[in-house]
Amino acid sequence: MADDVRPPLGPRLQKLRKERRLTLDTLSQMSGVSRSMLSQIERGQANPTVATVWALADALHMDISELLQVPNAKGPRKIDVAASSLTPEMRSDDGLCVLKVLSPADRVGSVEWYQLHVAPGGVLRSEPHARGSMEHLTVLKGTLTIEAVQERTEVPQGSTARYAADIPHCIENRTAEHAEAILVNLF
Length: 187
Description:
22% of the residues lie in helices and 30% in strands. By secondary structure, it is of the alpha+beta class. The protein has 2 domains: 3-67, lambda repressor-like DNA-binding domains (434 Repressor (Amino-terminal Domain), Orthogonal Bundle); 87-186, Jelly Rolls. The termini are far apart.
């Protein structure tokens, strides 16, 4: 495709990212596309693969045609379904905790929600989030332990723990059973 008719992906991506107050690092985590590749795309120094464009569109909760500003003959989508395989994931340092990012990109910094899987012995340590932020952890399977401000509390299956997240805190699976939860951060 000639340069003069190529969709202006770089400037469009940068504009969308800044409008949504996303850093390159945040969009990288959400999309699975490296920070350096994102920077190169935004500067027009890289031609991303279809898979990369798809991952970026999914992270931004839009169709590829919207990201590329190509008219969609079907009209705007009313129901957006994100494929499980395209849901961004983050892992703890020990590799035993997996956070699937369920919240839309435009909610980063106000409300974020995750599906959390914690293997036996897994620990998810967090530095303080924004001042006044709160976490809400609902355990769907197993038992998890929350530690914050020198307090440790077990949260059994079906229960919800609410706690300050603007201090160092951790979620730990101290059992021999796999645990699953929904984690919501309110800023």
